[in-house]
Amino acid sequence: MQITIQSGSARRYSLTPLFKTMLLSGALGMVLQPSLALAQQQEPQPTAAKASADLKDEEVERIEVSGFRGSLNVALMSKREAVGSKETILAEDLGKFPDLNIADALARVPGIAIEQDAGEGRQISLRGLGATFVKTTINGMESASAGAATDAAGGSNKSRAFDFNVFASELFTQIDVNKTTSAELEDGGISGNVNLQTARPFQYQGRKFAYNLNGRYNDVAEEITPRGSFMFSQNWDNKFGVLFSAAYSEGLVQSEGSTTGRWNINNPSWAKDSPTNKLTSAPVFQLSPKGAYTNENMEGLYLPRIPRYSIFNKQQERLGLTGAVQYEASDSLKFNLDLLHAKLDSTMDEFQYSALLRGNVSSKTKLYAENLVVDGNNTAVAGVLSGVPIRSEARKDLSESDFNQVTLSADWQLTEQLSLVALAGYGESKLDIPFQHTFGLDSFNSTFGWSYDNSIDPVALLGQTGTAIGSGVMNMDMPSFAFAPAQAPGQSYTSDQLQQLMLDPDLYSLGLVRKKTQAINSDNSNLSLSFTYVLNDDYSLKFGLNHRVFNTANVQGDNAWKALNTSTNKTSGDSAEVLVQQMDADKTAGALYALSLSQAGQHFGNAASVPGSSTLNAGSWLTADYNKVLAVFADEAIFQAKERYASTYEVEEKVTGAYLQLDFVKQLWDSELRGNIGVRVLDNTNTSRIVNLDHIYADGYTAGRGDGAALAAGYGFRETVSESNDVLPSLNLAYDLTDDLVARLSLSQAITRPAIADLASAIKVNTPDSKDPTATIELGAGPTLKPYESNQIDLALEWYFAEESLLALAVFHKNITGLSKGSSQEVFNTAQLQAMGIDLGGVDPATITWDVTQLQNTPAEGVLGAEFIYQQPFSFLPEPFNAFGWQSNLTWIDYKRDIEDPFTNVVSSMMAEETSRLSYNATLYYEQDQWSARISYNFRENYIKEYLNKYKDESSFGRGYGDKGQLNFSSRYEINDNLSLSFEAINLTNAATEQWNDVYTPRPAEYLLTGRQYLVGVRGSF
């Protein structure tokens, strides 16, 4: 093994070829040679190991788990017997904890932290690494799940990260989390593999019916919604069985608070190629000097891009169905058929009341500083600007996520020594967003005041003429706002006067009618054969083949198109979504469409504390009447969404794999050594198809250009194919140092493939014009992009110091190659631009310098982590305290990458995306015969969501989330064997989701609260 440390950079280490040789030949030979010798000496016969394995399988199928403590104990036994690092959640646990979906159920597993959206878990992080590094299978088959989310949470999912919020927690009876890899596990999870197992009838004896009915209340939305599930199973003596389960829930969750989008830097001295520039592209935002505020003293100040209050009102309807059939054809052959359907429909009503402090250079809107207060980080924490466009938006999104999967598997004992597990499956995941409608009421030439400093009243600032830049501090999560729509500066107002102005519809006009659509359709098929050959009592040889095919297609549409002259192939005018501003006033007058927030059936301030100095509150919020605007403009040409061909792509991924693994159990120094050693070999073919942009006109939305005119769709595709191979060795050892002490060692190589969207060769272009001079090209990396690759070492020591108790420490080191967005400045000729579907009209291409960005593979960087687990029932205490118990875990990770600052070109060692340095979970439970209660706390430290180097005209570098801890409570009272009452409370402390911009000086981008949720219900079984 070779370890290298570089000063000022992330740690790096690599497994040398010598180590690979040792792993694959030396160690394999040491273990395999005795087994082959023994196999030659012995006649084939039933073995104790095989009999034990058969008995163990039978016991697992018939296991009865009672209570939360019982589920913990069974999971603990499974962990102890495992060779690698493994965690398990069992059925008694799922569905009987405050879990709104399966992601929330995973939140307390050691090493797992969740990322939330709209008050629910969406994706998971395992051992500190981001969601893209987790491989998820359902019933043993690779699965993909894509859902939609609020824009604040990243929008629709085009990555490999699995959206767990599509699935109700009640659909599954067991979850296995493997944190170390082995040859028999499917590839793709550098941080680990998660398998979700739905219920099967042979798990239960005879006939069984279980139910769970709840009422769910959110104290922000102030509405009660239903949630329920049931399961029916019939088992005929383990010869034939059927099972059906269903889970249905409705939920209304309202997130409310403040957002800014990003922050702008004022850089009036910017000049092309100037070494003093604070931006690397011409600024799109700039303050105009006035009075005491000059270009010189406003240079380098940061201002919020779109300061606003925000409401995300999300109505969800979740349905899950499972079916299972098991048939034992003979003592040696058993079939399993598993069916799964999940559907998540979301309707989101979004409201924003904003000051548009962005893009004013291209729109030729002059913004003047009337008063400015700045903190020590050059952040304008308070101030007043004039000439500001105010916009009040009403938006409605509809999204439909559908997931279907069928798997057929067979367990076949071919001979006394050879067994086969065969699996064939097909799954599909569809995300359909038929519309995202946004309507905006605009009030131009307004005066706007804001304050993030609780000692400054923005209303008082409005009437003052600043004579110098003041000094303040940023100490408010919720800023205070003072809006004076359509009012010139220099006037003083009371709060009441400003609120009357804000509610005057004659001061507004309709300024935005936006429509977006999207569809992501994916399907995957899987065929695998896994053989086990028992050599003798100590050795088993596993080998197998699998072939899987994954296809996905993305189509997006919007009405951001411009008028097109097909004869000249030139566009003109503004984008369609804002052409409403040029219509007659009698069709766009604010009085035709305006109504108050309460009239729209909305409220604001149940969770977020609106500062008393703010003029914007529930009573002064004027918004657009969504239904009225839609009725008028639904059939207007400017409201029609057209396909944006540059965003269209299809990706196919074919993976054929083979593995060989030796499992062994040996007595070493009077203690048991368990282990496996093996290798998985992969052949991968990726195909990317994008629209041939030569067939698309300059607007990007019209097909039929050139050779495309002869094609039925008006365009053809360009196809790129890439082939690669991977060899992934692994070694796992577990040694019983004593009866109570287990040591583990794992060595492996693992991969995680890039996000699906990154494998596409799609192109995103911003063509410069008189209103927007920026010239940017974002190139899709394409199928030649290599996967993340990791060399991994895992060491663990587990002390089972008392019954049902564990004290464990694991340390791990990974060496992970990365992907980062590289950028360059390029000048292209006409032919090169045409190949990318870019038309500059009469502009000389030699005069345009393009900012080109594209993902690229980066060298490996070291990851060091540690995991601590403590679990114990307090049985040693006197009554009634002996019914208490504790479960806790903590994960620490140091995963840094070399990141280049796009503004200074300085390379620094920074935490990798989606990586929290610290996360922990703790549960205190009390359980006796009739009633039980649990309180759980989950914490995830701040993390970078992504390093943004594409906003080089604004100065946004990086966005991330702040620390978040959530407290949940669950209790149950058993009336009799078939009926119990339950009460659950989620997010008891009303913890906020906080997002920020800038890795050096975090500035608030989002502060949203979802409130508390309560569930009261009945459950039982018979």
Features:
single chain; 1022 residues; mainly beta; 22-stranded antiparallel barrel; five-stranded mixed beta sheet; 12 helices; 49 strands; 10% helix; 51% strand
Description:
This protein is mainly beta. 10% of the residues lie in helices and 51% in strands. The strands form seven sheets. The chain has a 22-stranded antiparallel beta barrel. A hairpin with a 2-residue loop joins strand 45 and strand 46. The two termini are 58 Å apart.
Could you give the topology of this structure?
Elements lengths: L1 E3 L7 E3 L2 H25 L6 H15 L4 H15 L4 E5 L11 H5 L5 E6 L2 E7 L7 E5 L2 E2 L29 E7 L13 E7 L8 E12 L4 E14 L3 E20 L3 E3 L21 E2 L6 H4 L3 E3 L3 E23 L2 E23 L4 H4 L3 E8 L5 E34 L4 E34 L6 H5 L7 E2 L8 E5 L10 H8 L6 E26 L4 E20 L4 E3 L4 E3 L12 H4 L5 E3 L25 E3 L1 H8 L8 E2 L5 E20 L2 E21 L25 E20 L4 E12 L3 H4 L3 E4 L9 E4 L8 E12 L6 E21 L3 H6 L14 E24 L10 E17 L6 E5 L6 E10 L3 E10 L2 E4 L12 E3 L2 E13 L2 E8 L6 E5 L5 E7 L3 E9 L1
Parallel strand pairs: 6-9, 14-18, 18-21, 35-38
Antiparallel strand pairs: 1-2, 3-8, 4-5, 6-7, 8-9, 10-11, 10-49, 11-12, 12-16, 12-48, 13-15, 16-17, 17-19, 18-19, 19-20, 20-22, 20-23, 23-24, 24-29, 24-30, 25-26, 27-28, 30-31, 31-32, 32-33, 33-36, 34-35, 36-37, 37-38, 38-39, 39-40, 39-41, 41-42, 42-45, 43-44, 44-47, 45-46, 46-49, 47-48
